[in-house]
Amino acid sequence: MARRPLPRILSSGSASITRSREIARTAADSATDVLHPLITILRGLRLLAAAGRRKWAATPKDRRGPTLFLAAACVLVVALIPYGPLLAVITVMSAAAWKGRDRTPVRTGPDETEAGRLQALYEALVPYFSTADDPSPLFSHGGDWEKGFDGHTFDADGRLTSLQVNYPAYFTDSEPASRSRIEQLLQAKSGRGREYHFTWDEESNHLVMTVLDALPVSIAAQRFVTAPGETVLGFTDADSVQRTVPVLDGDTTRDAPPVVWRTGARSTEPHLLVVGQPGSGTTTLMRSIALQALQNGDIIVVEGSGTGEYGFLTGRTGVLAVECGLAGALATLEWAAHETERRLIAANRARQAGHPVPEDTKRPLWILLDRPSVLGHLAAADGRPDPQELLQVPLRHGRAAGVTVVMADQFDSAESLTETVRTHTRARAVLGPASREQIEAVLGVEPHTTPTPDVPPGRGYARLGTGPVLRLQVPATPDPYDDATSEAHRQAVLDLLPERPPAAGEAPVTAPVPVAVEAPVVEPVSRDPLVGAPAIAER
């Protein structure tokens, strides 16, 4: 059947609408040009009237009468003299036109200093974006910088905040080494001490450089709105994640983009490795994870440095052990390995019998190890096994058994991490000042921004599995028993701690729960007495 042509009104409707819009836009521009003097005079009259009202309001009440009489006398004199009203109108219109003129200069391009910066940057890129065989080079010595740069913005200090670079098609933008050289050059020429984000568009041969704002450090430890099995590692840029959570930032509540790490049976990154320099905030991240894990799970803390950074957790409900010595750490990790095996066996028997999984295997168990390399050196000197060897079972089978391992160490001891730890810790975080090579060695890929040499504690990068590299700022979670901790941060951490269980023969003390905050419900966990769980908990 032959197609019937569309009605003329439908086929030509879009063209008519477009033509009408163009006619209306042209008419509006013409009217603006014609009425520009009138608009200027009206703006000036409004400004003069506002100035007169302010002057009258500032005049004292005892002087308003004489002022009003003097103004009336001047009006009477002007009205009586020849051509007085006409001259008065001309004077007022002239004053209004002068007052209402547009005094904001319209910048049509960069000033002399900014143009000099762009030309210097253009000359610096010539050796990388030009070859001798190019008949019409985009970058050449003494060339015009406008050919290589499309868009640019400067801040109040005259430094670049964004720049779009057009590079030739033969540039090897697919090689990381070539990209890194260009990024380091742009960072050095645009100003150090800032963090730059680079976006490469290989299809269009464009490079966009943007200066990133610093992540806020004012978010402290608090109860985050997350689902079971989700842990907030910190916060990142708004355009890097598709989710926000309400947080208390000082005295105000706002939405912040979090870096959420998912654990559990369906997680693809069940274990976490944190690496950083001394004082970079790795222990702060461990404390933040511990407070979040205590909402619906049990934790075991092994501290290799022996500085007592986790002493505030001792004796709390859900804290099975806090060990600082070698003997206690080995015994605790050995129990954790047996507990992982017990959970696997119990869950397997229940499934074979057609029964639901036992409740004591569902409650998450978190193993937190801070500086295990120190314990490894002590174990080697004492002829004992490395504590990392006891983590093979929790690392290999922890996802199925509900056991999560979180390790934190420093760059100078990263080589002592075993192959099992490197293989099964697919979630990674790097905190503190670090080079691009160090970050790539931990995360697997280079960061998309340029690391700065001076960063606050808790600032770094995170990568979950094969996902993108995200900037990270850990919420402030200091040791509440430290004298250097502020009162606000100390109280924030203490409010998140669970209550201590009552001692034998004491009545349980029920702390009042605020109405606005729902207290987490912690169910007792039944454990097999053969594996020594009560002894660990008592110690």
From TrEMBL:
Record keywords, A-Z: ATP-binding, Membrane, Nucleotide-binding, Transmembrane, Transmembrane helix
TM stretches of this protein: 68-98
One GO molecular-function entry: DNA binding
Protein origin, superkingdom: Bacteria
Keyword Transmembrane helix recorded: yes
Residue ranges annotated for the FtsK domain, each copy included: 256-440
InterPro entries assigned to the protein according to its UniProt record, in alphabetical order: FtsK_dom (IPR002543), P-loop_NTPase (IPR027417)
Residues that coordinate or bind ATP: 276-283
Secretion signal span: none
UniProt xrefs under PROSITE patterns: FTSK (PS50901)
Designated name of the protein: FtsK domain-containing protein
